[in-house]
Specification:
The chain has one domain: Hypothetical protein af1432. 68% of the residues lie in helices and 0% in strands. The chain has helices at 3-15, 25-39, 46-55, 63-66, 70-84, 89-100, 113-124, 128-141, 146-155, 167-198. The protein is globular. The N and C termini lie far apart (66 Å). The model has no long low-confidence stretch (mean pLDDT 91).
């Protein structure tokens, strides 16, 4: 079995314990596809980028039980597999560093072009129509209502456009940000109209 297939199989099993919320198998595959798209024409190691994108969230299901960031857990869980698949120590170090620094909410800056691409791809999947869907799906699992979604949008989602690292990522973010902004504005307007009607 090729290395990519083994990595996908490992990732799918790790994430199979949770099929709801925002960090599922399909999210990882979208981040992988976006990473490959952004990486075209850039001076990247495809082996490093491919593995980092596919493995960046494998620790998510264990985050709540361990109290550790999934960006740390994902690296720890992935290292034995990468060694088994004959990745060099340097490649493994680069993959784990890209995974460790992809999560913008921790305030870490990616140290490599592969890390920047992964961070951009992960952020892009939190924007646009898919980003809206993921945020609502995640909110439902956390018991958040519409106001909770709007708070999350204000505090995180609407800021992502200005946090992109790569030029291809910035271009993709413009369109997705516009979709997100329109949805947030429309939701706020409909809530306001409903509040006005109920006060009559």
């Amino acid at each position: 079995m090729p290395a990519k297939s083994k990595i996908i199989d490992f990732m799918q099993k790790a994430l199979s314990v949770s099929n709801s919320g925002a960090h599922t198998f399909d999210h990882t595959m979208r981040v992988y596809t976006l990473s490959m798209q952004i990486g075209k024409g850039l001076p990247v190691s495809i082996r490093v980028l491919q593995a980092a994108a596919l493995l960046h969230d494998v620790g998510r299901p264990r985050e709540s039980e361990t109290g550790l960031s999934h960006s740390i857990l994902s690296g720890e869980m992935s290292k034995p597999l990468l060694q088994e698949l004959a990745y060099t120590e340097n490649e493994i170090e680069q993959i784990l560093d890209a995974i460790r620094t992809h999560r913008f909410s921790e305030g870490l800056e990616p140290n490599s072009i592969e890390g920047k691409i992964l961070s951009d791809a992960d952020k892009l999947d939190s924007m646009g129509a898919i980003g809206v869907y993921r945020a609502i799906a995640h909110g439902v699992t956390r018991g958040r209502g519409m106001n909770g979604f709007l708070k999350h949008a204000d505090e995180k989602l609407l800021k992502l456009k200005d946090l992109m690292y790569t030029e291809p990522g910035k271009l993709l973010a413009e369109k997705r940000h516009e979709v997100l902004q329109k949805f947030v504005d429309a939701l706020r307007e409909e809530i306001r109209e409903e509040e006005l009607r109920s006060s009559l």
